[in-house]
Amino acid sequence: MAEIEHDEVESSRAPLMDHLIELRQRLLLVIGFLTAGFIGCFLISALLYEWLLAPYSDAASLVRGVPVEELDLTANFFAPLEFFFVKLKLALVGAIMVVFPVIAWQIYGFVQPGLYKNERGAFAPFLALSPVLFAAGVSFVYFLVLPMVMRFSLGQEQASAGPGISIELLLNVSDYMNLITTLMLVFGISFQMPILMMLLAKAGIINSKQMLGSWRFAVVGIALFAAFVTPPDPISQLMLGSALLLLYFISIGLMRWMEPKSTEVDEA
Fold first, then answer.
1. Domain extent for 147
2. Which is it for strands 171-172 and 75-76: parallel, antiparallel or unpaired?
3. How far is C-alpha 36 from the chain's CA centre?
4. How many CB atoms lie within 10 A of CB 75?
5. Cys staple from 146: which of 26, 55, 59, 202, with CB 3.0 to 4.6 Å?
6. Is residue 199 domain-shared with residue 152, that is, in the same domain?
């Protein structure tokens, strides 16, 4: 069996120059898709930004008790080219998200010849699951985290009943863009944790019993990670920490479900 696996890897070996040529071709393909995605996203960047403003307008409607149609909301920019650069950044982030499956499959295609047949079969399902989890993280931000952050922020407004000073949130297009892209990228990447844990389990580096016994350390680590990577607001930190802790225990359950099968293969 070992000789067959050795022959599989040997037969897939290629000279260094062939690997470099293949790497160049795959990089050019990824750059081509990114360029096309960037152009497409930039052409509709204004519409994309309006779509991203929906959680803000919905939160304002709820906090101020006014229907969305009757709200008079303004997103401000304070430099001549500020909104233009915001649209460029939005187009780039949008292109990366759209092309993410292509990037993942190109990485897999490049390393696949160096994997044994059983390793390819184990790795491919996780690779297909990665974009799904990334999209789940982005959706979690858009539909749950961002509305709560906006409601919390708008709740700090103070209206003056007399000649005093009113305190009102003035939305800056650049700050809002930085907030939402940071949250989406952080949550999208963090939602890859089940894939990482199950790959480590398949490699025999960790197992469900070890991870379950270390749950206290995991809670501390997740709390520190959430505080470090999210913007300095308690809502996003709490939401990321809670989501990661839930994914941690779900991953342990999936690892335990996988382990009996690997044991049966070893005994056979």
1. 1-69+76-157
2. parallel
3. 21
4. 19
5. 55
6. no
